[in-house]
Description:
Helix content is 29%, strand content 24%. The protein has 357 residues and is of the alpha/beta class. The strands form 3 sheets. A 5-stranded mixed beta barrel has the order 5-8-6-7-9.
Amino acid sequence: MLNPIYALILAGGSGERFWPLSRRARPKQLLHLVSKRTLLEETVARIDGFVPRERILILTNAEQEAAVRKLLTAFPEENIVAEPAKRDTAAAVALGTGWVAARDHGATMIVLPADHVIANRVAFQETLALAADAAEETGQLVTIGIKPTWACPGFGYIEHGKPVHLRKRNDKDAIHRVVRFREKPNPDLAESFLRKGNFRWNAGMFVWSVPTVLSEFNRQTPELADFISQLRAPENFEKVLRERFSKLPRISFDYAIMEKADRVLVVEASFDWDDIGSWRAVANYFQTDQLGNAANCAVTAVDSTNNVIFDEDGTTIALLGVHNLIVVRTGDAVLVCHRHQAEKIKDLIGKLPRELQ
């Protein structure tokens, strides 16, 4: 890798599936779900030694900015930027691209979500290094693909084709051309993807050279390309962000750029990965008793099985004659729902009092 590497960490998600622990001002990435550090802190620590902190941009939103700054007191203040409005990931990546391009037009850029669980830091950095080499040598957009462990209908998929080998790497068929991106499939289609073997989960992690992604923005989304161009002007960043960002189209980066690009590579992840998208997924990190009750606190259970329990203060929870529930207790709210309704928790949010959202 010859070019300096910059990283954009996307930390502005809403985290509605983790209510009542998560709120508008405290989304999933700001929670202590699986360790003593928040998911955002884990994400920053994961690239320590690979990308210097002065070359990392953390993008959050106005509601969460104060909490992010309070959490990352040792992080460069000017490298935490709040979106003035929610405009989905295409606008967020455009903002990050303008920030990087203003500093080094020839840089290599990594885009990472802030809310994933990845334990193997060494393997993670090795995969990023391979992806960065691929982006630099080929001049193509690169995405990281996760080998599926089950036929999950909740993820987007990447269908890959022929392998690509780099001149300076012995990569053992870790890099392939992308045939196409597939939207979240129904369960039967997800099963067929798994059987075919050439499908990977789309984890929303990307690597490219700045000239390559600028070319794609110019070709596919002129409005975002113009926004990036204005951001790069000297002393213009804050003004353009304030005046232009909220007017940008609300569209995902996958749809705006990746699905329409014709030169995309996928690098298979050599690391463990979990997006812990619900309370059911977080339960995998809790202690489980002989009745299948998973909890982060002390539980006394009688005739109660397969429940998921979380208590913010570590209070003992007693269960009697209940099965397949999710019970979450915070200082001001309690959630009780069937574990198979976990994906619908976000439907509750709009019905709650504003102060509990």
